[in-house]
Amino acid sequence: MRFGVNYTPTRGWFHHWLDFDLDDIRADLDSIAALGLDHIRVFPLWPLFQPNRTLIRPRAVDQLVRLADAAAERGLDVAVDGLQGHLSSFDFIPSWTTTWHRRNIFTDPDVVDAQAAYLTTLAAALAGRPGFLGMTVGNEINQFSGRPHPDPDPVTPAQAGRWLRRMLAACEAGAPGLPHVHASYDAAWYDGTHPFTPAHSARLGAMTTVHSWVFDGTAQRYGHDAPATGLHAAYLVELSKAWADDPARPVWLQEVGAPAPHVPPSGAAAFAEATIEAVLDCPDVWGITWWCSHDVDRGLADFPELEYGLGLLTNDRVVKPVGEVVGRYARERGRHPVAEAGARRTALVLDAGEPEEAPGRGVCAPGGAFFEAWMRGASGGGRVGVVLAERAGDAGYLAARGITEVVGP
Asked: Which helix (H) or strand (E) holds 388?
């Protein structure tokens, strides 16, 4: 089990690329390494790295490499997101896709070619560097594809799939053989009209990534300290496995955090412990990457209130109680054996409609019938998996996952 953190620089947040200071970064990385974590996820800002469709700034790419090398010197592996894209309620889209140059970022041929060139350039610059884990296509870039985004780039599920395959191939071209992935926010799992689907998440890329945020209605509906809130991340891990073609496909809990006031600061440490304990009981989990490393500087304006206090450390690099919990699990990872195949012998049958687009996946959302049924089974300590209805009678598939009992919701 890997334990890491999404790196949020203390000086300037992700705008630090404009005033790149390796000494500040080294101090941040020292504070992360001191917790016992083993990797970070890093976010170059797309408009700063590729300000023109045919210009990828060499100095920016070199700064990214220097950051990765500094992390490696501290024993921290590095995963890099490419198309940023969307971060903490702000969009970072280059000017050559907006206003007078408005083009669909998923379907316009020139834009897609430029994105592919950019991802290949970043991957190639990092290929062979010590500790480089691979690329993520972008952070929750699926949120640009439909509402509630105020200016969406409409795309069909088929077009979304083609775009993802092209972007993943671009990452592979730059750094062959590494586990490149893509990431979606939970509309992919919970909204039957959303064009990025569970099948995309669970079948494209080297691993499935899940982003677990309990401000999606879970904490509001059930309470910050309810079993359903602490189990939400494990639920997404198990839900994702239902769509995977490979029964042993790895799942990366790539983002999870304790957002106030939905999880009050006084309850953040307990929430972290409940979340990690539940995920440790899921088979095939590659790792947990907490959001985020350091609090956002309150000198920066206009963030949603919950974004300021998500760090494991303060903006002054002081470890918070939630950081103590995550750090303890990281340092004692050998005492927490990862669940093996067959750990969840009972699976709840999910009928979300045709599996490629899953138009009925709304039942999986907080408050939905399937969500409620899974939580009833798991809240009392039950070890519950998920299997799609069309696979519920496939003896070979069930055996490969170690499932011996399937039950209806």
From this structure: strand 384-388
Could you tell me which CATH class the domain 2-335 is placed in? alpha beta
Specify the pLDDT at position 193.
97
Partners of 290 in beta bridges: 5
CA distances from residue 407 to 98, 259, 385, 386 in whole angstroms, order as listed: 49, 34, 10, 10
Cα separations in angstroms, 107 against 188, 193, 388: 19, 19, 31
Q: What are the structural domain ranges in the chain?
A: 2-335, 346-407
Chunked into runs of 10 residues, the chain (409 residues) has average pLDDT values of: 97 97 98 98 98 98 98 98 94 96 98 98 97 97 94 97 98 98 98 98 98 97 97 98 97 98 97 97 96 98 96 98 98 77 88 97 98 95 94 96 92
Which pLDDT tens digit goes with each residue over 225-263?
999 999 999 999 999 999 999 999 999 999 999 999 999
Residue 352 carries which side chain, given as an amino acid letter? A
Q: What is the pLDDT of residue 341?
A: 65
Q: Is 267 exposed, middle or buried (0-12, 13-18, 19+ CB in 10 A)?
A: buried
- Helices 268-280 and 321-331 cross at an angle (nearest 10°) of 30
Q: Tell me the C-alpha distance between 217 and 210, whole Å.
A: 17
d(CA 384, CA 376): 10
Query: Any idea which residue has 């299997």 for tokens?
Result: 387
- pLDDT for the residue numbered 381: 85
Read out DSSP for 341-352?
A: TTS--EEEEE--
Tokens 């304790």 sit on residue: 258
Strand order in the sheet with 77-83: 132-138, 77-83, 39-42, 2-6, 285-290, 251-256, 208-212
Residue 124 burial class via C-beta count within 10 angstroms: exposed 0-12, middle 13-18, buried 19 and up:
middle
The token pair that represents 207 in the structure block: 């691993």
pLDDT in tens, 42-69: 999 999 999 999 999 999 999 999 999 9
H helical segments located in 179-306: 187-190, 198-203, 218-222, 227-243, 268-280
**DSSP string for residues in 123-170:** HHHHTTSTTEEEEEEESSGGGGGSTTSSS-----HHHHHHHHHHHHHH
